[in-house]
Amino acid sequence: MSKVNKPPLSISKLAYLSKNYPQAKQGATIVNVGPVTDDNRMLEVPKLSIAALRFTNTARARIEAAGGECLTLDQLALRAPTGSNVILLRGKKTAREANRHFGFGPHKHKKPYTISKGRKFENARGRRKSRAFKV
């Protein structure tokens, strides 16, 4: 898959989402279609069973230290071939920095691709009321 379709999820987000799913309390496996990253703001990681495309080294170490397990998607397919007792999650696709630039035309609250924010950069017609921009 392309990078857009496999957004990362942090272990803090996985822990938060697992609290809201009643199936997760019965030992369901959480599946993420992208990488699982560490979040050092989270002090204690709960015991979770997670299957993902990839794990960062620190995320894998913290999950296994908490008594959880990190599975590959192949291992998950052997364990739950029908997909029962599995929770599918995906990170936020619009969290990329590139998404801030999307939107057509001026005054669409999009972030401009500029070198700088000075007098000479993206400040002419279409950016100021004094410059008479008529469409």
In short:
With 135 residues, the protein is of the alpha/beta class. The protein has helices at 11-20, 22-25, 57-65, 73-79; strands at 9-10, 29-37, 49-55, 69-71, 86-89.
| Unreliable runs | none
User: How many DSSP E strands?
Assistant: 5
Major beta sheet summary: 5 strands, parallel
Secondary structure: helix percent: 10-25%
N to C succession of SSEs: EHHEEHEHE
| DSSP strand content | 15-25%
How far is the first residue's CA from the last residue's CA?
Answer: 40 Å
Number of helices: 4
Quote the average pLDDT. 87
| SSE class | alpha/beta
Radius of gyration: 21 Å
CATH architecture of the domain at 3-95: Ribosomal Protein L15, Chain: K, domain 2
What would you call the shape?
Answer: elongated
Task: Quickly name the level 1 CATH class of the domain at 3-95.
Answer: Alpha Beta
What is the CATH fold-level name of the domain at 3-95? Ribosomal Protein L15, Chain: K, domain 2
Organism: Wallemia hederae
Protein name: Large ribosomal subunit protein uL15/eL18 domain-containing protein
GO molecular function: RNA binding; structural constituent of ribosome
Keywords: Ribonucleoprotein, Ribosomal protein
